[in-house]
Amino acid sequence: MRIGVLGVGKTPHKIQHNKSLRDLAVESSRLALDDAGLSPSDIQAMYVGNVGSVGFNYENSTGLMVAHHVGVVPAAAVRVEAACGTGAWALHLGCVAILSGLYDTVMVLGCEKMNDLATAEGTSIIAQAADSKEEYFSGLTFPSGTALTARRYMQTYGLTEEDLAHTSVKNHHYGARNPYAHLRFECTVEEVMRSAKVADPLKLYEVCPMTDASSAIVLCREEILRDQPDKPQVYVTASQMATGTWYAASDSLDDAHALFARPAERAYAMAGISADDVDVAEIYNSFAIQEPLGIEGLGFAEQGKGWEGAADGSTWIDGKVGINLSGGLLCKGHPLGATGATQAVDIIEQLRGTAPPDMQRKDAETGISACRGGPGSVGAIHIYQRLEG
Amino acid sequence: MTVSAIEFSRLGPPKLRLYAMRCTSCEALSPWWEHHHCYKCGGGELVEQELAGTGEISNYTVVYYPPRDFLGQEPYVVGHITMDEGVMMPAPVVGVAPEDVSVGTRVKATLRRMKLGHEGDIYYSQKFVVDPERAPAG
Amino acid sequence: MAEIIRYGAYVPRYRAPLGEIQSFFGRPGRPRSKALATPALDEDTLTMAFEASQTALAGGQSPGTLIAVSQSPPFRLRKLASTLARTLGLDGVTPIDLAGNGASLLDGFAIAQAIAAAGGEPTLVVAADHLVSYEERVCDTLSAGASCAYLIGSSGGCATLGASARAAREVYDVWVLGNEPEARYRLEVLFETYGAVAAEALAALEAATERTTGDYAAVCPSQPHPQTLRGLGRVGVAPGQLERTSFVGDIGNLGAASVGVSLALGLDGASSGDALLALGYGGGEAIAQEVTVTGTPTGAGTAEAMADSEAISLSTYYRWTRGRQAEPH
Description:
By secondary structure, chain B is mostly beta strands.
């Protein structure tokens, strides 16, 4: 499988009271179209990832609304929703659309405008991405559900809170260098430990902020990109999706591991590579504990050892594999529907060599993005490769 | 988190009693919300089984930033309660300071309000309190 | 003969600072209660009724009838007894709601006695209230919350329900204006009427039992206000008889649960052979009920539960009670 990446674009990830959901979507789409050298009329289909516009913005039919404002009408357009895995699912559908042969050029766009509401309202809307009717009746939230996973992980593998704090330190090191990141400051283990408690054992610096942003990718048939050798030759070479447990109470550490491990195994086979070939990875980490879980699921470390790389340097920019060199969700923020698309854009920039200097992994050729959604419900793996010649 | 009064009447009865769902194929117990599918064996028939209401905390967290419906109750403890019948239920643990909660603490179910619905409907459900009769020594 | 088989009382552990509330509203004088027993944000009449009922049903006997007494929201249109029965798993029980005032628990006792006399299954009589007052009215009504539950049957109990007597006047010591969501209290009328009808009821009970008021080991009264307890002194109740059964000066007015919580305190500390006097008062009516301890009560730990308390702030009190007067159902 080879899907050409013609163009990418992303808005700054931050609180943007001066911009609406449609403003953000248009901004990212125009950047991607400019990068691709295309106009809206060249787009044959559009996959718009958005999770919560009904709650956050009181508007529905986001795919149709975005299609209108981007100007792709009368191209096909649809909204995609799969909890926090939404943007990755939009990317998957874009790949499937190209692979099917039905379309030559499509746009994948993720967008979310979360900060028009107070935090408690937003938290309630986010909780609807899990089992809001039944399990979340017990007062669970995404942070507290994940905190239970963190505590179980720490008990099982003998971690301390300080051990886990290294993950935030690494992410903030790179987030401080990412001009598109929401939180741009470095922190120490001590500062992570001192930050406010959100849900024991997770603290504020181990939790992503609510963010307004949009990211877009223009995909095309392999031949179209191959015929433009002056363009960066970056391709999506694997796209694999999976479902997992819908209830946090049922989500064991093995389930959390399998959520990425199963689709990753298929994705590596699809791309014809192994975990050892990966140079850079963007791994979903709306909460710090999810990064080591993802590292293990992708095969970069054994179960229970995924946290070590942030402490010993092996997941930093010049380590064995550079993980979340964008700062991850912990620093970029987590604009729900945009996140999967942003992960893709960040990896593509790494492979193109256009990431900001202090974030750019030298000679990155192969990258992977791993996005998840719901309590443990969506696992989305994409592999990207720079394939010159 | 918001449901209508009609939904409440549908969801309400299970909240007034504590029970699990038992798979008629493999006998495994699942939390009360599993009406359609056994997570263990894939069986499609689950029936109610009342629980004694006692168990122990197998995992827990303290919520400092609650969703809208739980505003005013923070900080509150949410635990994974492993019931004596073996099934695990997530539920708040109340009447105890967060620092006094630990894994292994014996608890028993009680009835509490969870929230007030937007149509004025009151949501009740089981929370857990430390079981004084079976609390660990010391 | 009807007997109390088992009983329970539940007093929420949180204590609101009545003195601060009084200062906040600029009300002169000392507060009439040290604190107010305040249900938590996640408690109400149903949850408190559930707590007390669980204790009363811990012996394993199932009632055939459940009588619920309350004057508090949230249950008005819906039946508290029906919902409570479902929470307790009492399938098939006959649920009855009694309009709640401070004496209604003893009305429930009367019905339970009749059912027992007819050979029926035990009756669970439950009273639960969460009184809430707007603004400074709390300084008069001392509004608080609690519950109690009594399982009453024909045998196997720890105390027998003996004779009862009642007296009533048509007065307006408590009433609700048509456009107001909560009751108004006229304290001087309450004090006067409480004393007067209590005296009449006690006299009638004395005539029926040939036992004087002073003969009871303990008197367990409704206690909407400390002044009503002082009034009992004028009708023959000695301070010692109220020593372990009075609480209004510590935790406030428990409404319909008041007499039942007081009786639980009396039973907790009683010995076999002791005679207790339950005195309910509400809405101008007093009911005097003789209770004779025949065994060793299981004990509800009522006094200990009352002592296990935690102070809450003024702001917490208003956050927890805001809007509770007008809740639906």
